[in-house]
Amino acid sequence: MRNEVYQKYQEKILQSHGNPQYAKVHMKLKDIIEGDFFNQYIKTGTISMLSEGRPGLDNTYSLHDGMSK
């Protein structure tokens, strides 16, 4: 039963959002918040990002739906 619910939910997500993609990139924060990358991905909310680092110890940042967390 649980597997059927999961599959129906997954199909609905894929129909409305397409196949999710994952990529690991190395970018400076400046490159993310300026120019074409910012306009094409960040402002449209089509990307979720998490920086490397240790929360509470290192400077980290995350983005989801075009909003900084």
What does this structure look like?
- With 69 residues, the chain is an alpha+beta fold.
- 42% of the residues lie in helices and 12% in strands.
- It has three helices and three strands.
- It has helices at residues 2-17, 29-33, 35-42; strands spanning 48-50, 62-64, 67-68.
- It has a three-stranded antiparallel sheet with strand order 1-2-3, with no helix packed on it.
Q: How many helix segments?
A: 3
If you compute it from the alpha carbons, what radius of gyration comes out, rounded to the nearest whole angstrom?
16 Å
Question: Tell me about the biggest sheet?
Answer: 3 strands, antiparallel
Uncertain regions spanning at least 5 consecutive residues: none
Q: So what's the overall shape?
A: extended
Give helix and strand order, one letter per element, not per position. Answer: HHHEEE
Distance between the termini: 35 Å
Strand content: 5-15%
| Average pLDDT | 79
Structural class: alpha+beta
Q: Tally of extended strands?
A: 3
**Helical percentage:** 40-55%
Oligomer: single chain
For the largest sheet, list the strands in their spatial order.
Answer: 1-2-3
What would the keywords be for this entry?
3 helices; 69 residues; 3-stranded antiparallel β-sheet
Give a short synopsis of this structure.
The chain is an alpha+beta fold and 69 residues long. It is built from three helices and three strands. It is 42% helix and 12% strand.
